[in-house]
Amino acid sequence: MTKRDESSSTADIGARKSDHLDIVLAPSLASQRVASGLDRVVFEHVALPELSLAEIDLSTRFLGRRLQAPLLISSMTGGPERAARINAHLAEAAEELGIALAVGSQRIALEGRASGGLDGSLRRLAPSIPILANVGGAQLVLGYGRSEAERAVEMIGADALIIHLNPLQEALQEGGDTDWRGVMAAIEALVAVLSVPVVVKEVGAGISGPIARRLADAGVYAIDVAGAGGTSWAAVEAERAAEPAHRDTALLFAGWGIPTADAILDVREACPETLVIGSGGIASGLDVARAIRLGADLAGQAAASLASADHSAEATSLHFRTVIAQLRVACFCTGSANLAALRQARLVAPATTA
Fold first, then answer.
1. Could you tell me if residue 272 is left (phi over 0), alpha (psi between -120 and 50 degrees) or otherwise beta?
2. For a FRET experiment, which of 141, 209, 248, 337 has its CA 20 to 30 Å from that of 117?
3. Tens digit of each residue's pLDDT (9 = 90 or more) over 107-153
């Protein structure tokens, strides 16, 4: 590939990723085609909590660092200039609040000239929190290996590497990477040699128990279920489709996937010893509480915080302070002094019905 071709490819990827953000923020995608299932988790109200709201302990440990709340700002991306602004806002907010940060795909930074803020500045803005790097699973069979993975980690001083799985999006995306033969073997090989732990996540269609078990057996440190109920990347690709036939096909799969609540339950049952991140339609602190009650160790949020992240660090901090305050109320009204107690909180209906 010539330098002109490389520059054109980088520009195309950047434009596509910026389009993705605009579409996710558009009101037309506000109504989801599949429910996350989290609203079926109904806590039994405790009228005598015998707790101080202010003293409820929401802290946990993740990747060797202490979090003030069990929250991961999930992977977001965009064209290079826009991504740099968003990443800076997210890093400042995450550092202020003591929550973890996962960056979006680093493909442009690894292959192009633009970093999108994915460089040493990110760690300088957030010196004390866990930061997770990110590469695509499909790239692991298209030339990416240990060298590229280590570069992704080193460029932002990351504590772990996320490998994201997005077969549905790739299948519906014009020019998508659709040869996934060998991805599992590549993940296993990378886990064995990488200098940091590996996290595997979907991007909105969920991970099943059997797949999670295979990943855990391969040495993957954590599974982010990223279930259906949040952003539908099929719907996003439908919005971008130039041809009516492509749009119709993408819309057909807009409701595809494992709902987040089901995915959390399934993965926790299959992998009792593995760290589980619940994401996909986490809209509030109450949803965070529901995810933890179902078996997640952390909850991840992306789309619900995107508008604030696109605006400013202050708006981002306010958004996540609100989420944390909502989680604290859920703990208070279930009589849960900490996250361990929240995991045992009584439900109006059994968790297995979620």
1. alpha
2. 141
3. 888 886 566 678 899 999 999 999 999 999 999 999 999 999 999 99
DSSP 288: H
- Annotated ligand binding at 8? The verdict is no
3 annotated to bind ligand: no
pLDDT one-digit tens code per residue, 195-235? 999 999 999 999 999 999 999 999 999 999 999 999 899 99
Instruction: Please state, in angstroms and as integers, the Cα–Cα distance from residue 231 to each residue in 17, 81, 206, 264, following that order.
Output: 14, 23, 12, 17
Report the alpha-carbon distance of residue 177 to residue 106 in Å, rounded: 16
Domain 3-21+40-353: assigned CATH number: 3.20.20.70
Q: Is 106 annotated as a binding residue?
A: yes
139 annotated among ligand-binding-site residues: no
354 pLDDT more than 50? no
**314 is known to lie in a ligand binding site:** no
Domain ranges in the chain are 3-21+40-353
**Computed from CA positions of residues 35, 41, 42, 47, in that sequence, does the dihedral angle turn out positive or negative?**
negative
DSSP states along 166-208: -HHHHHHSTT-----TTHHHHHHHHHHH-SS-EEEEESSS---
105 labelled binding-site residue: yes
Q: Would the annotation count 201 as a binding residue? A: yes
| Residue 146 marked as a ligand binder | no
Is 75 known to sit in a ligand binding site?
Answer: yes
* Distance, CA of 312 to CA of 168 (rounded, Å): 32
The whole-number average pLDDT for the span 279-291 is 97
Give the β-pairing of 65-67 and 60-62. antiparallel
174 is in an annotated binding site: no
